[in-house]
Automatic annotation (TrEMBL):
SUPFAM superfamilies: Calcium ATPase, transduction domain A, Calcium ATPase, transmembrane domain M, HAD-like, Metal cation-transporting ATPase, ATP-binding domain N. It is found in: Membrane. One of its GO terms (biological process) is Golgi organization. GO terms for cellular component: plasma membrane; trans-Golgi network. It is a multi-pass membrane protein. The gene is Atp8b5. It holds the Pfam family PhoLip_ATPase_N. Residues 7-72 form the P-type ATPase N-terminal domain. It comes from Burhinus bistriatus. This is Phospholipid-transporting ATPase. The active site is at residue 383. The keyword Transferase does not apply.
Length: 765
């Protein structure tokens, strides 16, 4: 399937493509396949295969020296116990599948909502979901109970994030509301990409009444999500059952072996080899004796039936000795190790130091091999935001038109430390202010009240350039639903300083500016992604002015600024470095006034690109690059994200266990290093902290070599074990032994050095 085509409310049309229905299957066996498949899996284990081999030998009368049931009984017992365990596990999977497939959902059929089972839902059906319902399949959102057809979803089962995300229907489908007649008559045709496992991407188009509309991931509700804070919503099934993104990501579980398992297998194989050697020596001895002596004693010791030579007698005796000496192979070792593992898992469960009293949560070992798996860890790769930090963002400081705000100074102009007794800014003049927001620099409020133009433009940008959704259940009681906590913090700051983001529709943004309500027309959103590292909006003010507002990383935005901003850029850079030195997250903000004729031509090309099925992202990226030029710098923001409790102590303990820790962060280099010191990842006791920031492969290679040479001066000698490994030419992957440095060191490497410039021949350095 290269492209999916479907029509709403037209099962006959959709059935011709033979799309999967919404039934899922996660079980491994059925009644007929359980026995052969399970036995096949069990005999892949060395111990079971060895028992089976012995049983086959014992069934041969010429070599059998022990009764066959001495092997059958333990083999059947082991297979039965494992088989019952696997059967129970698979029965639970069948039970879970049946429960999910038989969940009820309301499907629109012949103008009426009918209760159907999940498994009977088909591609092209329109279904109704209510608050706290699980999403049945991958749906295109058509309409909802919320203003402007917003729908709030929780995606914890998909990506582990608990903060609510917001989806919004197209305006043309939002008009359908909950009118069953209109929904029944809806015959939109969707063309989209084939089923895939990319949770954050969707490309498609909706054709309705001759008009084509672009579809993206912001209009999709994925299976595995839960509807929240939304009374009802209607959706069109795009992918069902095994084609949904959730199921596309549910690959087969890979079987992992611990190092103890691998060691035991190697030991057992060595013992096998030793057993074979013993049996071979004994068989040769038997053959020699039968040839020299036994041949003449056949009157007293007759050879077995069918044996007509000494060599054949030795061959049969080899297998007899394999049976007799089978106890040499310590099959019980596996059982002993499992008992030890079980005991160690109980020690983890009972560990008082791993008990969290606030939630009454003890540690829980869900696998008996957890203890030895933890002991194998050499490296920890961790994200920073939300893992090391609390992911609770606070607007702390900012720079506007070359002036820094956020510090508190005494009468003599000396900076003083902010504490609980420091006087907060009084926002009581603003009826819509957030009472939880705290700021201490009174000069910024004065600048706003004095109608300072750059300051007003700065907060206007923060109130317009974002993807936050507002909720106002009661008059004046605003709650922001932000997919990114950074955006929530910036919009809240603008709100308190008099630029209150009040409402949003697909075409407008309503802002209360210093008590005056203004409605801006939202003409385009230039999305943020990891390559662009910025986002922009294009709006038309009530006065008719066209403006592009942009915010993003300083390294990216500085390249897009107009040459007239050079002096302001230098001042802002100084402030950014100060903010980074305090481990604050920084963003640069800029704007651009647009020409009407140029914009009309650009928006026409933007519509063509956004409705293209092939190369949509590349075409849009080119258009974004084209318009985001010659920007005028406004300033910068600085947000604080505090460390979670116990992070420095935890990292210190892990370091004592000789575990190397890597932390990934999107912050500026200075910010990253300061956070590294604050969480004990870096410390002053280190011999050195190496910074790798080269822009070319050669620069990065030289920096890495210099670092290695300092950590281990003799690492470039021909006698060094790693260098010897590299001298050997081989296409097979090489296992490089660990190097012991002559001290404790830290390494900071920038993104462009790590991703763009480090080629295969550098990785080993």
């Amino acid at each position: 399937e290269e492209e999916r085509q479907l029509q709403a409310n037209n099962r006959d049309f959709n059935l011709q493509f033979e799309y999967a229905n919404n039934s899922i299957k996660t079980s491994k066996y059925n009644f007929f396949t359980f026995l052969p498949l399970n036995l096949f899996e069990q005999f892949q284990r060395i111990a079971n295969a060895y028992f089976l081999f012995l049983l086959i030998l014992q069934l041969i009368p010429q070599i059998s020296s022990l009764a066959w049931f001495t092997t059958v009984v333990p083999l059947v017992l082991v297979l039965a116990v494992s088989g019952v365990k696997d059967a129970i596990d698979d029965f639970n999977r069948h039970k879970s599948d049946k429960h999910v497939n038989n969940r009820p959902v309301q499907v629109l059929i012949n103008g009426m909502l009918k209760d159907e089972k999940w498994m009977n839902v088909q591609v092209g059906d329109i279904i109704k979901l209510e608050n706290n319902n699980f999403v049945t399949a991958d749906l295109l959102l058509l309409s909802s109970s919320e203003p402007h057809s917003l729908t709030y979803i929780e995606t914890a089962e998909l990506d582990g994030e608990t903060n609510l995300k917001v989806k919004q229907a197209l305006t043309v489908t939002a008009e359908l509301g909950e009118d069953l007649q209109k929904l029944t008559e809806f015959n939109g045709e969707v063309r989209c990409e084939a089923p895939n496992n990319k949770l954050d991407k969707f490309t498609g188009t909706l054709t309705l009444r001759g008009e084509k509309y672009a579809l993206d991931n912001e209009k999709m509700l994925l299976r595995g999500c839960t509807i929240r804070n939304t009374d009802w919503c209607f959706g069109l099934v795009i992918y069902a059952g095994p084609d949904t993104k959730l199921m596309q990501n549910s690959g087969k579980t890979t079987f992992k072996r611990t190092s103890i398992d691998r060691l035991m297998n190697v030991l057992v194989l060595v013992i096998f080899a030793f057993l074979a050697l013993m049996c071979l020596i004994l068989a040769i001895g038997n053959g020699i004796w039968e040839h020299d002596k036994g041949y003449y004693f056949q009157v007293y010791l007759p050879w077995a039936e069918g044996v007509n030579s000494a060599s054949y007698s030795g061959f049969l005796m080899f297998w007899s000795y394999v049976i007799i000496l089978n106890t040499v192979v310590p099959i019980s070792l596996y059982v002993s190790v499992e008992i030890i593992r079980l005991g160690n898992s109980f020690y983890i469960d009972w560990d008082r130091k791993m008990y969290y009293p606030l939630n009454d949560t003890p540690a829980q070992a869900r696998t008996t091999t957890l203890n030895e798996e933890l002991g194998q860890i050499k490296y920890i790769f961790s994200d920073k935001t939300g893992t090391l930090t609390q992911n609770i963002m606070c607007f702390n400081k900012c720079s506007i038109n070359g002036k820094s705000y956020g510090d508190v100074c005494d009468i003599s102009g000396q900076r003083i430390e902010i504490n609980e007794n420091t006087e907060k800014v009084d926002f009581s003049y603003n009826q819509l202010a957030d009472p939880k927001f705290a700021f201490y620099d009174h000069s910024l409020v004065e600048a706003v009240k004095l109608n300072d133009v750059p300051t007003h433009r700065f907060f206007r940008l923060l109130s317009l350039c974002h993807t936050v959704m507002p909720e106002e259940k009661k008059e004046g009681n605003l709650v922001y639903q932000a997919q990114s906590p950074d955006e929530g913090a910036l919009v809240t700051a603008a709100r308190n300083f008099g630029f209150v983001f009040r409402a949003r529709t697909p075409e407008t943004i309503t802002v209360v500016e210093m008590g005056e309500t203004k409605v801006y027309k939202l003409l385009a959103i230039l999305d943020f992604n990891n390559v662009r590292k910025r986002m922009s909006v294009i709006v038309r003010s009530p006065e008719g002015d066209l403006t592009l507002y942009c915010k993003g990383a300083d390294t990216i935005l500085y390249e897009l600024l107009h040459s007239s901003c050079d002096s302001l850029k230098e001042e802002t850079t100084e402030h950014l470095n100060e903010f980074a030195g305090e481990a604050l997250r920084t963003l640069v903000v800029a704007y651009k006034n647009l020409d009407e004729d140029y914009f009309q031509d650009w928006i026409r090309r933007h519509h063509e690109a956004s409705t293209a099925l092939e190369g949509r992202e590349e075409k849009l990226s080119e258009l974004y690059e084209e318009i985001e030029k010659d920007l005028m710098l406004l300033g910068a923001t600085a947000i604080e994200d505090k460390l979670q409790d116990g992070v420095p102590q935890t990292i210190e303990t892990l370091a004592k266990a000789n575990i190397k820790i890597w932390v990934l962060t999107g912050d500026k280099q200075e910010t990253a290093m300061n956070i590294g010191y604050s969480c004990n990842l870096l410390n002053d006791d280190m011999e050195d902290v190496f910074i790798i920031e080269g822009h070319t492969s050669d620069d990065v290679l030289n920096e890495l070599r210099n670092a290695r040479k300092k950590m281990k001066p003799d690492s470039f000698l021909d006698s060094d074990e790693i260098n010897i490994q590299f001298e050997k030419s081989s296409k097979k992957p090489k296992v490089i032994p660990d190097e012991q440095a002559n001290g404790v060191y830290g390494l900071v490497i920038t993104g462009h050095s790590l991703v763009r410039k480090i080629q295969n021949h550098i990785r080993a350095e």
